[in-house]
Amino acid sequence: MGKLDGKVAWVTGAGSGIGEATAMTLAREGARVVLTGRRKEPLQSVAQRIGGAARVEQGDVTDAARVQAIADAIKAAHGRLDILVSNAGLNVTKRDWPDITPAAANEVIQANLNSAFYCTIAALPLMRAQQDGVLIHTSSMAGRYVSLLSGAA
Q1: Can you list the positions of beta strands (E) in the chain?
Q2: pLDDT (tens digit, 9 = 90+) per residue, 69-85?
Q3: Contact of 136 with 119, CB cutoff 8 Å
Q4: Separation of alpha carbons 153 and 137, rounded Å
Q5: CB environment 50-70: b (16+ within 10 A), e (fewer)
């Protein structure tokens, strides 16, 4: 028996890195895990390693409508959502302050900040209905270190 038996977790950015490791750990603890990311193949690879406790819901979390559709699919498939791990994010190559453009800044803000809001807005009704849930948001190094680089939303 795992600590999270019967729980449903949604992990964004689940195809690699922190998201992948988080999804694997949640599944090992007994949670059913919904994996979201832009690239289908890495998500399917993670799902295959997890086994039957994983479900792939591919999508770009900078698209509020797609995020809501994923939350709706979670509700339809599981009837609940206990844990949201909002981990999706990106950075841009040219992120030195003299080089970054407004378009690049917008891309970072969409992926690192707006997506966290969209996922929270979609997850909260499920969690409020069951009067329980946990929101986990992965932060960048900007929370701990001052840098000459932009890019941390």
Answers
A1: 8-12, 32-36, 54-56, 83-86, 134-137
A2: 999 999 999 999 999 99
A3: no
A4: 13
A5: beebbbbbbbebbbeebbeeb
Amino acid at 66: R
What would the pLDDT profile of 14-63 be if each residue is shown by its tens digit?
Answer: 999 999 999 999 999 999 999 999 999 999 999 999 999 999 999 999 99
Q: Contact 141/152 with Cβ under 8 angstroms?
A: yes
Pair 5, 30: CB distance under 8 Å: yes
Residue linked to tokens 């090992």:
28
Provide the whole-model pTM. 0.92
